[in-house]
From TrEMBL:
GO biological process: malate metabolic process
UniProt-annotated catalytic positions: 188, 259
Taxonomic lineage from the root: Eukaryota, Viridiplantae, Streptophyta, Embryophyta, Tracheophyta
InterPro entries reported for this sequence: Aminoacid_DH-like_N_sf (IPR046346), Malic_enzyme_CS (IPR015884), Malic_N_dom (IPR012301), Malic_N_dom_sf (IPR037062), Malic_NAD-bd (IPR012302), Malic_OxRdtase (IPR001891), NAD(P)-bd_dom_sf (IPR036291)
Protein's name according to its UniProt entry: Malic enzyme
Domain of life from the UniProt record: Eukaryota
């Protein structure tokens, strides 16, 4: 029996293993051998040596070697030569499958092996050349559409990206990852809103799955119509509250598609393992119901038990086929957003992005504004925060902010939060007070001194409260008008913050330029949809933060997936928010920069994912992922966890294709 060092072990290519088609299979063999070993060391802490059979040869490995083996094993995945990809089709079927298609990039040997010879022009174009060619056509589209309306240009850009998505996913995701700052506004907010509004006319090829009220009783079998064996991440909507655009029925499918594109780009979720879902239970949008070309069910929305039984059936079906898939609920109208979250969060690994993802991003922004004022974080409890919009997002933010205050100060005393909805300031006097809003409703005693009362208007509240922060999640474009913004100049804060978080851009409570113009240059500004930084003259720039849940949901999903979490706990969400909040340096925060640039979204997502994973382990809900069990997860240091998360991110490259019948 040979004694081996870790280096030898890693480099070892078992002599008896033959690899068909020159596939670099050694990586696979060592991966599984290393897994066995790591599992063995974890299960028997008293033993010092292990015998391991690799490719018919026995090796002896010492315990001391195992920790570095564990790390090398992880690194193997990321440094390995692109592994083979098994394909069960041949010829033209491959060219028409965007997952396998490489267009003119198929090497000649592969064309022979897969029956592609003659189906493509003879010249092989490299991935890099294809990339450059696509970017050139994108740039020339930009040039050729100059002067046309924003909507026309944005839709043209969306179309060219969507065509690539339909044809060649590898190239699509590579251009998306490399140019995320330019392309996020097209595949995500704001253009995705426009796409949803025009979806029935734009529809060419289906993407994702559609479960409708007519499918009741069929979902358990329908779920098997999805072609992928494994699904990791599902984003589902019922289309009832698409961004700030209201009920768009089946057309809301654009949102799960856009969110999952961000999952691939930011979290490196393998696009073969994502599933956008539309739950079509009808629509109450009269215009759509009357539209001949509307593609969804032409009936009013199901309500009550009928509605819930559809969602229940879907959740059971998903769980039966992919018990470890994470389900993200997105853009459900408030009553169903809260109801489904409560109904499923203890049974399935799921979360509601609008309530929980948004809350974490907003909390990170709120803590950032405390730092921006040069105050210790403990001062958060003293911040006067006016939240405009008492829906799923606004209430989610306040709930998480309240948890943060009580954790920091240990007190449950009512913080200085003011909540406004379409009927004005919410107080305990409100008739039919929504129970979800009740914890934030002001008592008469609290506001009397300020001269406020039930239903006071936004401008009255801002003038009287002089808040440190004005945060909009109302979906009402322009509601932070000149008067309101000017009133923020009297804020008690040395650096007041204005967050116009509603999407898409037309629904933002104010624009960045308006905020800096009317509220002053000293503000901190955040918006849900992107705005350009504002030129303040004299070389000064008003920084625009994109306060969007895209900074958190990819990490929440990825961390939950890699931990194999049974459920997603509040502590996992808090950990995500804390991680984002502490990501920026003091110097950046002083400049009003609260969130990292979207260009580094993969980095921040790796950190958030690791924080969520570690919280899942600490909360004892982690069951492990693949061959990495909970015990191994719990032995990882913080840095090792981040590396583990990074190593598990999918990255688009052309893998060698191997045909199997
Ligand atoms: N930036 C982000 O990451 C992010 C995340 C989630 C939601 N959002 C945006 O937030 C908005 C609201 O989402 P939601 O899920 O909470 O919607 P919702 O429908 O649940 O809630 C909207 C709330 O706004 C209130 N409102 C309506 N008109 C108002 C007015 N004139 N004055 C004050 N309040 C008014 C309503 O009474 C309701 O309480 C949407 O535009 C959405 O795009 C942004
Ligand atoms: O979709 C977004 O851009 C953020 C958020 O989930 C929203 O509903 O507005
Ligand atoms: Mg949303």
């Amino acid at each position: 029996m040979d004694q081996c060092t870790v280096a030898q072990f890693i480099q070892f290519q078992p002599p008896s293993v033959k690899f068909s088609n020159n596939i670099p299979g050694v990586v696979v063999v060592l991966w599984s051998a290393a897994s066995e070993l790591v599992a063995a060391t974890a299960s028997d802490p008293t033993r010092n040596n292990w015998n391991l059979e690799v490719g018919g040869v026995m090796w002896r490995v010492a315990r001391s070697a195992v920790s570095s083996l564990r790390q090398s094993r992880r690194r193997m995945l990321s440094t390995a030569i692109p592994g083979p990809c098994i394909v069960h089709k041949r010829g033209a079927d491959i060219l028409h499958d965007p997952w396998f298609n490489k267009d003119t990039g198929f090497p000649l040997t592969e064309r022979d092996r897969l029956g592609l010879r003659g189906l493509l022009p003879p010249r092989v174009i490299s991935f890099e050349q294809q990339y450059v060619r696509f970017m050139e056509s994108y740039r020339s589209l930009e040039k050729n559409t100059q002067g046309q309306s924003n909507n026309v240009v944005s839709l043209a850009k969306w179309r060219i990206l969507n065509r690539l998505h339909d044809r060649n996913e590898t190239l699509y995701y590579r251009v998306l990852i490399d140019n995320i700052k330019d392309f996020a506004p097209i595949i995500y907010t704001p253009t995705v809103g426009l796409v949803c509004q025009n979806y029935s006319g734009l529809f060419r090829r289906p993407r994702g799955m559609y479960f409708s009220a007519k499918d009741k009783g069929e979902m358990m079998s329908m779920i098997y119509n999805w072609p992928s064996q494994q699904v990791d991440m599902i984003v589902i909507t019922d289309g009832s509250r698409i961004l700030g655009l209201g009920d768009l029925g089946v057309q809301g499918i654009g949102i799960p598609i856009g969110k999952l594109d961000i999952y691939v780009a930011a979290a490196g979720i393998n696009p073969q393992r994502i599933l956008p879902v539309m739950l079509d239970v009808g629509t109450n949008n009269q215009k759509l119901l009357e539209d001949r070309l509307y593609l969804g069910l032409r009936q009013p929305r199901l309500e009550g038990e009928e509605y819930l039984s559809i969602v229940d059936e879907f959740m059971e079906a998903v769980h039966a086929r992919w018990p470890k898939a994470i389900v993200q609920f997105e853009d459900f109208q408030m009553k169903w957003a809260f109801e489904t979250l409560e109904r499923y969060r203890k049974r399935f690994c799921m979360f509601n992005d609008d309530i929980q993802g948004t809350a974490g991003v907003a909390l990170a922004g709120l803590l950032g504004t405390v730092r921006a004022q040069g105050l210790p974080l403990s001062d958060f409890a003293n911040q006067k925060i006016v939240v405009v919009g008492a829906g799923s997002a606004g209430l989610g933010v306040l709930k998480m902010a309240l948890q943060a205050v009580s954790r920091m100060s240990g007190s449950t005393a009512d913080p200085h939060f003011f909540l406004i909805d379409k009927d004005g300031l919410i107080t305990k006097e409100r008739k039919c007070l929504d129970p979800a809003a009740a914890p934030f409703a002001k008592s008469q005693g609290e506001i009397e001194g300020l001269g406020l009362s039930e239903g006071s208007s936004l401008i009255e509240v801002v003038k009287k409260v002089k808040p440190h922060v004005l945060l909009g999640l109302s979906g009402v474009g322009g509601i932070f008008n000149e008067e309101v913004l000017k009133a923020m100049r009297e804020s008690d804060s040395s650096k007041p913050a204005i967050f116009a978080m509603s999407n898409p851009t037309t629904n933002a409570e104010c624009t960045a330029a308006e905020a800096f113009k009317h509220a002053g240059e000293n503000i901190v500004f955040g918006s849900g949809s992107p705005f350009e930084n504002v030129d303040l003259g004299n070389g000064k720039v008003g920084h625009v933060n994109q306060a969007n849940n895209m900074y958190l949901f990819p990490g929440i999903g990825l961390g939950s997936l890699l931990s194999g979490a049974r459920i997603i706990t509040d502590e996992m969400l808090q950990a995500a928010a804390r991680c984002l909040a502490s990501y920026m340096t003091d110097e950046e925060i002083q400049r009003g920069v609260l969130y990292p640039s979207i260009d580094c979204i993969r980095d921040i997502t790796a950190e958030v994912g690791a924080a969520v994973l570690r919280a899942a382990v600490a909360e004892e809900v982690a069951e492990g992922h693949g061959d990495v069990g909970p015990r191994e997860l719990s032995h990882m240091s913080k840095d090792e966890t981040i590396q583990y998360v990074k190593d598990n991110m999918w990255y688009p490259v052309y893998n060698p294709l191997v045909h199997e019948k």
